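Throughout our pipeline, every protein is held as a single compact record rather than as scattered files. The remainder of this section carries one protein's record, kept here as part of the documentation.

===
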Amino acid sequence: MKVAIISSGFLPVIDGVTITLWHRLQQLSQRQYEAIVFCPDYQTLEQIYPNWQAFTGEILPGINVINLPSVPFIDITFERNISRQAYPLLIHELKKFQPDLIHVDEPDRLFLSLFKYPGVAYARQANIPCVAFFHTNFIEYIEDYFALPNFVLRGFQQLSQCLIARNYNSYNATLTASAETAHKLRQMGIKNVVTDEFLGIDFDRFHPNLRRPDFFHHTYGIEEIDKKIKLVFLGRLTPDKGWNFALDALGNLAEFLVQETLSSTDIALVIAGDGPMRDRITDQLSSFGFSVGWLGRIPPSEVPALLINSDIHVTASEKETKGLTVLEAFAAGLPVLAPRAGGIIDSIEDGYTGCLYAPGNQQDFLEKLVQLINHPQMRQTLGQNARHHIAQFTWNRAVDRLLHVWNQQIERAHSDLSH
């Protein structure tokens, strides 16, 4: 099988889309598939990503990456989007490669700069299937990035919903890894939804022997946090990740700790990520009295050891379509505190693999966080349950599920041609 993948991003950008794509490509290469990946050119971000050229050309046997001309993506300084001017080159390369199937990650985001449904026109001309993968609910992001009156916001969201549904309905299938997200997509009017366990985890990399008593001092040169209870936040420092709520809640954490004969000096916050909210987060956290370990953007290779040497993974994001960092925390044997919202609820069994709090409810968030902080045996039990649960969700299994759908679509296209 020859597959063309058009993606809104790739390494060295680090997010759920790019990490997922990297693991899929490794699996495709091991199985001796041919794949060509089209993604934005990151040359203009060379100061942020000095190694970007390590992820272009033939990156794995049978896997080639073509970086297309790109433009900025909204106001996020570390992101790019494929430009409209890249479209002729995209079509030219597709004609040269002649794929059996086209897979598009985040076609709604790509549409914002291409003004086309990526891959669809070529696929129809070539009589091959073209499938889309729904990674991000951009409709819910609108309120985080645009200060609009409520009535304007709702109207904008309704218009966006119609446009996004039209976009995804132009594909042969819309794939998602979350039953909750699939339900939302159908409510939006998307009629071709296919849901399965399309995401996985590289479980063997999360080995308990990565734990060491002086990890943060030895690895990052950060003093005084190795012996504290470490709350790790992993991901972009952007409004859509729930940082406004998290900052307000953490500002009241010290008061809750006192009730449990603990203090802010017993806690360390570990922030692994970067983004436009960094300065605000830095200023506010510094006033709360907690030790803070700022790691910045870390490569995927460092994630297993980071999580294994932390104590609780905290996320305030209500808009995840699945939550890849939650799966990574599970593999590390780490309990997760997350809102009961979005695709995350498909991953966490409340009270068994982690804790879910009522979205927007500071009291519930803080009570459950303090409970985890104050009960190491509870953390250990939840973490063990989570690690046992996630062990079956390998990337090998996830790509098996994906290939099954791809093959179904190819067979259907061949069947349609024969009639």
Notes: The domain at 203-390 is CATH 3.40.50.2000 (Rossmann fold). The longest strand covers residues 34-40. The mean pLDDT is 93. The chain has two domains: 2-200+394-418, 203-390.
